[in-house]
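Project standup — Tuesday

K.O.: blocked on the structure for the chain from last sprint. Re-posting the sequence here as requested.
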Amino acid sequence: MKLNKKSFLVIASIIVGIVILFLVYDVVNQSPKEVVTNIMEDIQENKKVEEISKEDQEKLQSFFEYSQEKNLEKPNLIISDYPGRPDIVKVTFEIIHNNKKTGLEAIYEGQADFYLKKQGLHWEVEGIQVTPYRKEW
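H.V.: unblocked you, prediction finished:
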């Protein structure tokens, strides 16, 4: 089968159109968990986050500052959905403090609940409720 110039341009245009549609759909149709994951990545990198207020950014930043102030490892983040509640995403901050001689010394755990609302095709953060670190063990 021989393709002439016009047929080639039509096929190339269709392929480019499909790729653009897929990319636009992927960007616009993020899940609440993906929205929160992106926000947390920006907070960790000290980037300004447009999706949340400066006050909420400072609340979240305090989880990372705590580990620096106490000379502990960076917190592990566990991002999870609430079953049956797509509008709430829970972020658990966990720091495991190990002692070289005795092993596990302490576990610190804090939490941030993100409350989101669907606006058109995307999710917006309406509020964040923070539970500060507490020593679990």
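K.O.: great, moving the ticket to review. The mean pLDDT is 88. The CA atoms of residues 10 and 51 lie 40 Å apart.
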